[in-house]
C-alpha cells in the first residue's frame, strides 16, 4: 500500500512539474477518458522496448541489421526509433517474441542490449530499461546447499530459475537465471556461513557483454576506465566470463561442441544453439581424438603435408606450361606485326606447334 502511495505521489509530482513547465492549469486540459474496450488487443501483442547500454553514438542501420541477424527470426520484426537510443519492436509471431525476450543477453558491438516486454499503453520513457536476463554460474557449491541457491543468486540479481544438476553434464557449478542490473557493479562472489565459518564461492557469467575488470561495471573495458592504467592487482573482476567445461557434455558456444552440454532456455533441455548436430557416438572421430593422441596428430600432419606437396608440384608445373604458351603467343604476334612477310613462315611454324601440343593448364 505504501508503494502504491509512493508511486502515485511520484506520478503526481511529475505531472505537476510538467504542467508548471508548460504553464498549464487544470481548466486548460480537456480529458479524454479511455475505456478498456477502446484499446485494440492486436496492436499491443508481441511488442518490446529496447535500448543499447552505451553512451557512445552508433549507426541505427547497423544496429537493426546486426540484431536481425543475431536473433535469426522466423518472421519479420519492425523497429521504430522513438528517441536517441530508444526503440519499440513489433514481432510477427509468438515464437520470435519469446526468443528475443527469453534467450538473452543480446549484444551490439559488445555492449548489452536491454530489452523488456511492452504493452503499448505505458509511456516508453517511463519504462526502466536497466536489467538484463543472463545465466550465472556459482562454482564449487556443495550439492546439499542447492536449497539455498535462490538466496545466493538473489545477492547477484533478481532470481528467475535455478537449473538442477544432472548426471549427463560435467561441471563443478550450478546454473541460475537472474536479472542483473546494468547500472550496478557485477558481483564476482557469493558467501555462506557454514558452522560459523565463512565460505566464498566464485560467480561467473555466461555470454557476458563488455565489462570493466577494475570497477565491475558493464558498458566499458578496464582500459577505458579512468586513465586506463591500472596495476594487475586492481583487476579484481577480470575472471567473470564463464568458460564451459571441456568434456563430453560441453555447453553451448564451445568450439566443435558435440551434442552435449546444458541447453538454452529455462528448462535446460536440448543441446543449445551453439552445440553441433553430431551425435554423442561421434566423439571418437579422428578430429576429436586427435587432441588427446599426439601420434594421431602427427599422422594427420604428414598426410596434409604430402597433399600440399603434390598440389604445389602440380600448380608449379601448370604455371610453367602457362608461361611457355603465353611466350609463344607473344613471339608469334610480335613477329607478325614487325615483319609480316619475312617472318610469316616462322610464325606459321609456331602456330602449328602450338595447335599440335595438348595444353593441360
Please describe the structure with a list of short key phrases separated by commas or semicolons.
single chain; 361 residues; alpha+beta; Alpha-Beta Plaits; 3 domains; 5-stranded antiparallel β-sheet; 10 strands; 30% helix; globular; disordered N terminus; disordered C terminus
Brief rundown of the structure:
By secondary structure, the chain is α+β, with helices and mostly antiparallel strands.
Output the structural class. alpha+beta
Mean pLDDT: 73
Low-confidence stretches: 1-10, 246-306, 355-361
Tell me the number of helical segments per DSSP (H or I, 4 or more residues long): 7
Q: Element order, helices and strands?
A: HEHEEHEEEHEEEEHHH
Main pleated-sheet profile: 5 strands, antiparallel
Give me the CATH fold name of the largest domain: Alpha-Beta Plaits
Task: Trace the largest sheet across and list its strands.
Answer: 2-3-1-5-4
Q: Cα distance, first to last residue? A: 86 Å
Q: Given this structure, which CATH class of the largest domain is correct?
A: Alpha Beta
Shape: globular
Domain Zinc knuckle CX2CX4HX4C: 180-225
Region (Disordered): 248-303
Protein name: Zinc knuckle CX2CX4HX4C domain-containing protein
Biased composition (Basic and acidic residues): 284-294
Amino acid at each position: 500500500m505504501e508503494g502504491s502511495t509512493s508511486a502515485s505521489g511520484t506520478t503526481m509530482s511529475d505531472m505537476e512539474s510538467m504542467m508548471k513547465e508548460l504553464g498549464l492549469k487544470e481548466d486548460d486540459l480537456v480529458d479524454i477518458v479511455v475505456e478498456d474496450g477502446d484499446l485494440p488487443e492486436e496492436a499491443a501483442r508481441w511488442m518490446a522496448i529496447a535500448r543499447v547500454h552505451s553512451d557512445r553514438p552508433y549507426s541505427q542501420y547497423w544496429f537493426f541489421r546486426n540484431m536481425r541477424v543475431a536473433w535469426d527470426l522466423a518472421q519479420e520484426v519492425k523497429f521504430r526509433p522513438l528517441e536517441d537510443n530508444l526503440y519499440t519492436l513489433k514481432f510477427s509471431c509468438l515464437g520470435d517474441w519469446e526468443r528475443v525476450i527469453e534467450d538473452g543477453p543480446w549484444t551490439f558491438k559488445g555492449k548489452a542490449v536491454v530489452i523488456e516486454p511492452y504493452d503499448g499503453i505505458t509511456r516508453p520513457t517511463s519504462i526502466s530499461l536497466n536489467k538484463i536476463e543472463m545465466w550465472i554460474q556459482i562454482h564449487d557449491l556443495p550439492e546439499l546447499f542447492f536449497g539455498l541457491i535462490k538466496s545466493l543468486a538473489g545477492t547477484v540479481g533478481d532470481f528467475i530459475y535455478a537449473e538442477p544438476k544432472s548426471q549427463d553434464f560435467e561441471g563443478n557449478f550450478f546454473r541460475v537465471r537472474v536479472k542483473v542490473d546494468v547500472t550496478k557493479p557485477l558481483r564476482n562472489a557469493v558467501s555462506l556461513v557454514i558452522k560459523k565459518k565463512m565460505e566464498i564461492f566464485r560467480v561467473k557469467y555466461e555470454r557476458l557483454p563488455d565489462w570493466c575488470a577494475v570497477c565491475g561495471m558493464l558498458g566499458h573495458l578496464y582500459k577505458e576506465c579512468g586513465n586506463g592504467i591500472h596495476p594487475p592487482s586492481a583487476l579484481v573482476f577480470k575472471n567473470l566470463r564463464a568458460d564451459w567445461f571441456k568434456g563430453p557434455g560441453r555447453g553451448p558456444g564451445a568450439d566443435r561442441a558435440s551434442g552435449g552440454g546444458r541447453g538454452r532456455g529455462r528448462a535446460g533441455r536440448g543441446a543449445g544453439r551453439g552445440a553441433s548436430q553430431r551425435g554423442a557416438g561421434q566423439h571418437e572421430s579422428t578430429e576429436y581424438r586427435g587432441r588427446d593422441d599426439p601420434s594421431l596428430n602427427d599422422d594427420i600432419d604428414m598426410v596434409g603435408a604430402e597433399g600440399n606437396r603434390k598440389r604445389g608440384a602440380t600448380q608449379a608445373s601448370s604455371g610453367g606450361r602457362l608461361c611457355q604458351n603465353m611466350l609463344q603467343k607473344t613471339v608469334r604476334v610480335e613477329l607478325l606485326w614487325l615483319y609480316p612477310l619475312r617472318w610469316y613462315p616462322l610464325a606459321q611454324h609456331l602456330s602449328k606447334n602450338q595447335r599440335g601440343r595438348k595444353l593441360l593448364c
